[in-house]
Amino acid sequence: MREPAVARKYAVALFNASQKRGELDAVDADMASVRALVSSDHRVVNFLGAPDVAVEKKRAFIATVLAGRVSPLVLELLDLLLEKGRFQFLLPVAAQFHEMALEARGIVRVQATTAVKMGESERTALVARLQNLTGQTVQMTDAVDPRIMGGVVVKIGGKILDGSVKTRLSELRESLMSAPLKS
């Protein structure tokens, strides 16, 4: 099974269990804390993912560091990942779970790329237009890429809305090149 499929399986199970128990927000926050802990020190990942370290030592470490600080559901997930030898999937599981939690709250994450940094009024207007378009609350991050020359490229989930000057010029060029010449 590939990494995305494995991570999705665990994320869906955690999502369903947390919704059933009414703990979606708490589990999401706890997963963010665990993700931050694991991401902040590569030694934690190396230790918990090491095949030569006994699972009981890993469980003891997790109990010492996280017991009482995170939801029992999160502890159960960590224990299951350790037991199945799939701890390396923790970060992808956490990322997919977070996306599912956002979606359940009606929030969509959007990446907007412009040629120059947007002003606050432009950013606010773009967020409003995207909220009208999606019908969801938009959580937008923005980036600058001078290569697009102008306009904006928006990534929403797996979709890309390309309103860049670069793309428009390319489309115009293709149109002109394919148009028949009149004599």
Description:
The protein is an alpha+beta fold. It has two domains: 3-103, Peroxidase, domain 1; 106-178, Glutaredoxin (3-Layer(aba) Sandwich). The protein is 61% helix and 15% strand. It has helices at residues 3-20, 24-40, 42-49, 55-66, 72-83, 90-104, 120-134, 165-178, and strands at 107-114, 137-144, 151-156, 159-164. The chain has a four-stranded mixed beta sheet, with helices on both faces. Strand 3 (151-156) and strand 4 (159-164) form a beta hairpin. Helix 1 packs across helix 6 (90-104), helix 2 (24-40) crosses helix 3 (42-49) and helix 4 runs antiparallel to helix 5 (72-83). The chain is elongated. 20% of the residues are buried. The model has no long low-confidence stretch (mean pLDDT 91).
